[in-house]
Amino acid sequence: MKAIVVTDEAAGTAGMTLVERPEPEPATNDVVVQVHASGFTSGELTWPSTWTDRLDRDRTPSIPGQELAGVVTALGYGTTGLSVGQRVFGLTDSYRAGGLAEYVAIEARNLAPLPGDVDFTVGASLPMPGLTAWQGLFDHGRLQAGQSVLVHGAAGSVGSMVTQLAREFGAYVIGAGRAADREKTLDFGAMEFVDLENDALEDVGGVDLVFDVIGGDIQRRSAGLIRAGGTLVTIAGPPDARPTDGLAIDFVVESDRAQLGEIVQRVRDGRLRTNIGTIATLDDAVAALNPTERTSGQTIIHVRP
Fold it and tell me: How far, rounded to the nearest angstrom, does the alpha carbon of residue 143 sit from its chain's CA centroid?
């Protein structure tokens, strides 16, 4: 099968190559999925799990692409809940081969059914930003209706999902980002926009929840805006700033079949929009994942036309 592999951590996405790899076999509780579309998270190449196994042994060449959508073609021993021919989407285990390949073996529990009226491209764009937003807001941020949420990177794939879900839940959403992102941020539902290049972040005033995807100085300044009892939620690594009278939580997203079902249902009924910027074939994936200028939205790879 065709697959994108990485072998050199220092090279980053520039070290990606398209090669031939053996087709995978399903282990116990696995399924094999014929991948139709896959998404790549830029942070994957900084994760130790991309380069070593759980015993810290080298596992390169490794196949990235944690998000995928496709069709089940084989079941491993003991696998339940899914069937051959079923459309599915979800997240791969970061310690195993990813979805930038024509086939992938993945634990069945990491997948959810993809309804027939949802395109594979859309399906592949949902797991990482959708689950990150859901878990950050509800599992870790304990968002309540009527609260205010400051969303950094609000025009990005995660931030736009955070904005939409928080709005639906009854929160007042303030989006933050670069000046060029104002229109897109407001289009996804933010009530206000903070231009981090020109506006004073502190003018936002107090908020109940900060959803941080940046870290560093922005995170530290944002922590000071959180009201008593509020929460700083971050995916930028362990926080180096904490609210005076609140919580600071960093988390790693996990696949969750029930949450995937909630997310895809919202896409079906129009409550949630995807944020796809570039679509490329597997043959053109290396170039698409090494853009020469800043891109907006997710890059989705069509593995199977």
Answer: 20
Q: Which residues are CB-neighbours of 268 under 8 A, at least 6 positions away?
A: 115, 117, 118
* Amino acid identity for residue 292 in this structure: T
Q: What is the pLDDT of residues 81-132, one digit of tens each?
A: 999 999 999 999 999 999 999 999 999 999 999 999 999 999 999 999 999 9
The three-class DSSP label of residue 155 is coil
Buried residues in 276-302 as b, exposed as e (16+ CB within 10 A): beebeebeebbebbeeeeeeebbbbbb
Are the C-beta atoms of residues 34 and 102 closer than 8 Å to each other?
A: yes
Global confidence as pTM: 0.95
Handedness of CA 201, 170, 128, 40 (dihedral sign): negative
Helix, strand, coil shares, percent, the chain, to 5: 30, 30, 40
The residue behind tokens 């021919």 is: 85
